[in-house]
Structure formats: C-alpha cells, structure tokens
C-alpha cells in the first residue's frame, strides 16, 4: 500500500511540475507551489537514502558483515556508497525529465564535482551549515531560465557516514560526527 501511495505521490508531483509558475510558498490554482513540490521530492529522496544507508549498507557491512561498501564497488565487488546511489538516481532522473534536477553538494566535498557552482548554491550551503535543521529556498536565473532552487541539509545519519568522510584521503574536513550537516541536497525546478 505504501508503495502504491509513493507511486501516486510521484505521479502527482510530476504532473504538478508543469503547473509551477511562481516562487516558493505560493499556492497555485490547479497545482502546488514550487516549495511544496521540492519539499515532497526531498522527503522521498531523504527517506530512500536513509533506508539504503541503514537497512542495506549498515546492516550488511556492520551488523551481518557479509559485504563491504566501497567507492570502487565494481572493482571491489561491493555495495555502492549511499552518496553514489543518490547520484545514480539523479543521473537517471535527468535522462527521463527536465521538470526538475537534483544533486548532492557540499562545502567540504570529497569529489570536487560536488562543490557548489552557482552563487545561490554557495549561499544555500552556507545557510544550512550555519542554521542546522533549516532549509534554504531562492530563485535564480541560469542561462536565461528562471529556477526555484531548494537546498536541504544532508546530515550524517549513522557513524559510518562521518567516519567514511573523516578517513577519506581527499576529504577537506575530518571531524564530522553523527548529526552534523555534511552537505546539502540541491533541488532545482524551472519556472515559467
């Protein structure tokens, strides 16, 4: 039943994306606001990622110790890291729709490709770092297209998240702990 509800929600969200014409927080006749849309997308993304991190990676690597997780998962015959699974989903969505895009970024990226690129991304990542538990919303224009951009804190949900980043040779920050904001989920929706 929950799976059916998720499918219905996803279908409704994609349908509503075509009705987005204003900025965050505004109700739109026949649709939902960009903020409601991105908040709902983030809820699904965050829930899926937490489940993969705890129920798959955490259980199989730490509790049952039957397989490891590795950034070189194909060579190592291991599980992809939660951040890699998130990126794979983002890339697959980008192949199927231009109604929204999302990425995982950080002010302290292990991979330089995950560093913020726009002024709004930099402002938003700094805001969620300085204001734990709060989201960031702003409009921006890129390449002549106006977007609603939402940035949500990406928090270390289990010890393995923090320790993996702290031990990685390319990590610019090595003192993360559970509960810390490690980066942000950036969701961008075209307006108009």
Automatic annotation (TrEMBL):
Q: Name all Tll0287-like domain ranges.
A: 41-190
Task: Please list which residues make up the signal peptide.
Answer: 1-21
Q: Which InterPro entries match?
A: Tll0287-like_dom (IPR021796)
Keywords from UniProt, A to Z, are:
Signal
PROSITE patterns found in the cross-reference section: PROKAR_LIPOPROTEIN
Top-level taxonomic group:
Bacteria
What name has this protein been given in UniProt? Tll0287-like domain-containing protein
Which source organism does the UniProt entry give? Saccharobesus litoralis
